[in-house]
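User: hey, got a sec? need SRCR domain-containing protein folded
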Amino acid sequence: MNSFVILSMLSLITTSKCQALLTSSSETLRGEKRVTDILRSMNNRLQEEIRHSDARVKRLEATVNSLSSRISSLENGKDSTLSSKVSGAEQWIAGQKTGYGRLVRLVNGGSSYGRLEVNIDGHGWGNVCDDNFGSTEATVVCRQLGYRNGVVKKEAYYGEGSLDIIMDDVDCLGSENAIQNCRYVGKDKENCGHSEDVGVSCS
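Assistant: Yep! Here you go:
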């Protein structure tokens, strides 16, 4: 075998080994890249979980702080919402004891709003005209029912009634404990129709 043939064979063997080595190196690099991508993805998910956990912890802390503040307010008697409800209940009880709370009612609405009907001296129920009826008069009514404030609703806002109109031109100072104690024009002297039936919304 001459030297040319030997050199050719050595060249082929060397080239084949180099190609195999390059192929192996390329596969190794691709494998390392896949591993790197997987690790990077896992790291991103872990960081996202940490962020969500931090947000949940902050929400829990806010809830705990709010509850702690509410408990402290209740213990110190400073909870305004509870105090308002207790005060309203006390006023309602006082109204029932004196009878004033049983002399007004709100119909065609809800427990705290509706068309106003009144009973004067136990002689039966009647509607009230909205002439001159304002927030002062509405508040007097609402105090009778155990609430603090009142807003007037005019022009049969809660629908027209069918009873006699027994109060018109109601005029209160605001200190009265019942709407019946305010100045007003009575039955047969009023000049209203049921399209002017007054309503009240209490809070």
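Quick note: DSSP finds three helices and seven strands in the chain. Let me know if you need anything else on SRCR domain-containing protein.
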